[in-house]
Write a structure and sequence with these properties.
The structure is a single chain. By secondary structure, this protein is an all-alpha fold. Helix 1 packs parallel to helix 12 and helix 5 runs antiparallel to helix 6. The chain is elongated and about 130 Å long.
Length: 524
């Protein structure tokens, strides 16, 4: 599965890509699990010797490291056992370094220290010294990540110097160490050049992009810092690297920017990954901020819930008032129709009653004005009715999604499944459409016939039994009410503007006069 792309490499586009990847990170996980299962299948081959087993165990260790530390530790131990049976001291020490790093990351510091203390750099093969120094650096990083002790910092610095001296000069790790040792004012350019030399979205790409983002942040370039931290976080998500520093730092930046929803989403993702992988130092690092952001987010959600309840109540009151208004308008229309009939019956008498002609003409003008006014009121209230109901459905959808995220945070799996259901929104939408169909056809009882009169004989609309209006007819009902904006129609009918456009195009193709079809219909 590739990373999503949302257009240009702008900050917004990068955020859109990251938001999508966080929401769908389970897909990357499933792909990684399939890859791991393929590697494991090699262990079922007959007559597999210890050399082959060691290779498979090492592949599995590399897949599980920073993904599932319990499994990584398990396969590192199996590597050691296989190397011991082969009497291969080189591979045994190599696996022990892997195990020590995994122990340290998992919070098993005593076990990690015992392994590292077994060895001395001077007695190790030259090829393993870099791995030994790297294991010690990572052990101290995980064990002492909050330490300001000068002696601890000196030890780490010495190990880094030793690692730099023993690294393969042609490796990307060496070039990265070389940039680390540059003067501060040269590192940004060095990392930028180095980033162009590594494969995009690789683990090393994530490391270098994070370093560039950190430098920009230190220089006060927040937007540039965010861009590179996002690129780093995307690469970590793509590789299912659950030791993801970049997304945690983005959560802090989002919180500082007042974007509470995004801050909560990123902090939650970072915390869940650290817990799932068993990365204890990252759990300790994230948990403090995560508890703060969770508390703030929950309080905001509670406020939003109360606001939503208030909106629902207000919407109910307005809906009731709107129904009363529509009934009143309908009654007024019936009265006006009776008045028109009376006026027609009296027309012959008016010819004989010249004396009352002016009074009757005035009354007719007044009646016509009242009809126009009532039509305007009708369209105004119906338009408000649609906006309120559509907003009500959107609010319910937002509310349901918010509860879903909260439920995930509490790990209530069953609740998440139930709250994911769209049954409530679908039923409310259907009820809204039934209200609309009934009221509209009461106001325009010949609507379907009027529309069919403009269509070709073989393209007439025939509704199913017990169906008032379908989606196609609702589009033209809204047009009849003066709502011509396709986006507003799409919002009410809960579909895309392209769908509205397609429906309108198909209907025009069915019309007798394609060019003037909608004008004739709207002005009819």
């Amino acid at each position: 599965m590739s990373l999503p792309s949302f257009g240009k490499d702008t900050l917004k586009a990068l955020y859109d890509s990251l938001d999508y990847s966080v929401a769908h990170k389970d897909l990357y996980t499933q792909e990684k699990i399939r890859r791991i299962d393929d590697i494991k299948s090699a262990l079922s081959y007959p007559n597999l010797n210890d050399v082959n087993k060691y290779v498979v165990y090492n592949q599995l260790y590399n897949e599980y490291w920073k993904f599932d530390l319990d499994s990584a530790i398990h396969y590192a131990r199996l590597e050691i056992e296989a190397a011991t049976r082969m009497d291969d001291e080189y591979r045994q020490i190599q696996a022990e370094m892997q195990l020590a790093v995994s122990y340290a990351m998992h919070g098993m510091y005593l076990q990690a220290e015992q392994i590292l203390n077994k060895h001395n750099a001077s007695t190790l093969p030259k090829e393993l010294r870099a791995e030994y120094y790297n294991a010690n650096i990572q052990f101290m990083q995980y064990y002492l990540y909050t330490s300001d002790n000068i002696e601890d910092q000196r030890k780490q610095s010495n190990y880094r110097d030793s690692l730099y001296a023993t690294q393969d000069r042609s490796s990307i790790d060496y070039r990265n160490s070389l940039v680390d040792r540059m003067p501060e004012n040269e590192r940004l350019a060095g990392y930028t050049r180095l980033l162009e030399q590594v494969e995009m979205n690789s683990p090393m790409y994530a490391r270098i992009a994070h370093s560039i983002g950190t430098i920009h942040a230190a220089n006060g370039n927040r937007d540039e810092a965010k861009k590179f931290l996002i690129r780093s976080a995307l690469a970590d998500l793509y590789n299912v690297t659950r030791e993801n520093q970049s997304i945690y730092e983005l959560a802090i930046l989002s919180y500082q920017d007042g974007d509470l929803t995004r801050a909560y989403r990123y902090a939650q993702s970072s915390f869940e990954d650290a817990i799932t992988a068993g990365i204890q130092f990252r759990v300790a690092q994230v948990s403090g901020f995560y508890s703060i952001i969770t508390d703030v987010y929950q309080r905001r959600e509670a406020d939003n819930k109360q606001s939503l309840i208030n909106i629902i109540v207000l919407s109910g009151i307005l809906l009731a008032c709107l129904i009363v208004a529509v009934v009143f308008i309908f009654q007024q229309l019936k009265k006006i129709m009776r008045i028109r009939k009376d006026l027609a019956d009296s027309n012959e008498e008016l010819h004989r009653l010249n004396e009352a002609l002016n009074d009757m003409n005035t009354q007719l003008h007044s009646s016509n004005s009242l009809l126009q006014e009532n039509n305007a009121i009708k369209e105004q209230y119906i338009g408000q009715f649609f906006n309120i109901c559509s907003g009500y459905i959107d609010k319910i959808g937002d509310f349901q999604n918010g509860l879903y995220r909260l439920a995930v945070n509490k790990r209530y799996d069953e609740l998440v499944k139930k709250l994911r259901s769209t049954t409530l929104i679908d039923s409310e939408s259907e009820a809204l459409y039934q209200h609309f169909d009934t009221i509209f056809l009461n106001l325009y009882p010949t609507f379907v016939a009027d529309l069919n009169s403009l269509l070709k004989p073989d393209e007439q609309i025939v509704l199913k039994q017990d169906t008032l209006l379908n989606k196609e007819l609702r589009i033209y009902a809204l047009l009849r009410l003066g709502i011509t904006d396709s986006e507003k129609i799409a919002n009410f009918l809960r579909c895309s503007t392209s769908t509205i456009y397609n429906y309108r195009t198909k209907m025009r193709n069915r019309a007798i006069d394609k060019v003037h079809f909608e004008d004739k219909f709207i002005n009819n």
